[in-house]
Write a structure and sequence with these properties.
The chain is an alpha+beta fold. Among the domains are: 91 residues, conserved putative lor/sdh protein from methanococcus maripaludis s2 fold; 73 residues, Helix Hairpins (Orthogonal Bundle). Helices cover 25% and strands 37% of the residues. It is built from 5 helices and 23 strands.
Length: 381
């Protein structure tokens, strides 16, 4: 290989140096977009996933939890049911076929109102028995008068008179019984008819109907053709877990919230706590008697709130400080030096002044971020 001269080597080194200097100058003149962009606020989570660090903590104002005293509340679900003592079955004393229905399920009826007509063969049998009793009573009465005349003339013994008196008494009793039977069936004994009218025994709502036109009914048999319920008072049956039974007692009043009317609160009194627990859910049936303002319907779902006897101290914070996320309630508490911690709490009722009760998770004097949603948006960015 041919040996290169020192002069040639120095020339190559000089040329490379010039090219390197020119390349560096070109790179220095090109703009860097990232270097020119303003710094962004960043959130740096530490080892705990609920702890965060923000660049400008002064942007998030803090609020101090204040003391709030209230009686402990127990919320349970319940169902509106008719008061059994105010639910009266409509019965037919005569078996037969329904030929006309005058009132139907859900109708408001008055006591004594005609509900239906039943065509019954029992009427003819009762009227036949009545006519026979009338004839027997007339015959027994005539025979008694004859025996008295004969006894006065000494033609018969006293025992014959006494026997005639007994027969007459029995005949009179049979006549009264058959006459009462016609009266119970609603039949005029002077103008008999094969149609029995059934009337409402009380005023109320027809909450059950088991018959239609041309249906058959059994005299004093089940099922009853109709049931009328007086809904001026209703029952609310609540399920209370075994662990919460110490919070309820007979005679205690509760606030009733209707799902259909959320802005209306009704007072109800506990009149019975059933002694048997549900073997599956371990709940006891608590029965409340509630005056019906006219909006409570059988089958409605309600929420009953029972209050303890002694007030308990809770914390309360601005409602904006509580974040509802994934079916849970959270607040952000400051840790210092731009660090915040997300705490899970149990929120309570909304209080006056845009405050909210905290059942657990905070105590009076604790500080939280007054606007949890603003910090949450920063965290998500």
């Amino acid at each position: 290989m041919k040996k290169q001269s020192p002069l040639y080597t120095y020339a190559r080194i000089a040329l490379c140096s010039v090219l390197a200097a020119m390349l560096a100058a070109c790179n220095e003149g090109k703009a860097d977009p990232k270097a020119e962009a303003p710094p962004q606020a960043t959130v740096q989570p530490d080892m705990n996933a609920n702890n965060f660090k923000v660049d400008h903590p002064e942007l998030f104002t803090l609020a101090t939890a204040v003391e709030y005293k209230a009686a402990p509340a127990l919320n349970v679900t319940g169902l509106v049911q008719p008061d059994i003592s105010r639910a009266v079955p409509v019965i037919s004393l005569a078996a037969g076929r329904v030929i006309e229905v005058k009132a139907r399920l859900g109708d408001l009826v008055k006591k004594g109102q005609l509900l239906m007509k039943v065509q019954s063969n029992d009427v003819s049998g009762a009227y036949q028995a009545y006519r026979k009793a009338v004839d027997d009573e007339l015959l027994a009465r005539l025979n008694l008068e004859r025996q008295r005349i004969l006894y006065d003339k000494g033609a018969v013994a006293k025992s014959a008179l006494e026997q005639a008196e007994d027969v007459a008494k029995n005949a009179q009793a049979d006549l009264e019984a058959t006459s009462e039977q016609l009266h119970i069936l609603g039949i005029n004994k002077d103008h008999p008819s094969g149609i029995v009218d059934i009337y409402a025994p009380i005023s109320g709502i027809i909450t059950d109907q088991q018959i239609t036109n041309a249906a058959g009914v059994q005299g004093l048999g089940s099922p009853n053709p109709m049931t009328i319920s007086d809904l001026t008072y209703v029952w609310i049956i609540c399920d209370v877990y075994e662990n919460d039974l110490d919070a309820v007692r007979v005679g205690q009043f509760a606030d009733i919230h209707l799902n259909g009317y959320p802005n209306q609160v009704i007072k109800g009194r506990i009149d019975n706590i059933l002694p048997v627990l549900d073997p599956t859910m371990h709940t006891a049936k608590v029965r409340l008697e509630v005056p019906n303002p006219g909006i409570m319907r059988v089958g409605m779902f309600v929420t009953a709130t029972f209050y303890g006897r002694h007030p308990v101290t809770y914390a309360s914070v601005p409602s904006a400080a509580i974040l509802h996320l994934h079916d849970r309630d959270w607040v952000y508490a400051p840790l210092g030096d731009g660090h915040f911690k997300r705490l899970e709490i149990v929120g309570g009722n909304i209080l006056p002044g845009d405050m909210q009760q905290v059942i657990s998770g905070l105590k009076p004097g604790d500080q939280v971020v007054s606007n949890a949603l603003a910090l949450q948006n920063t965290v998500e960015q």
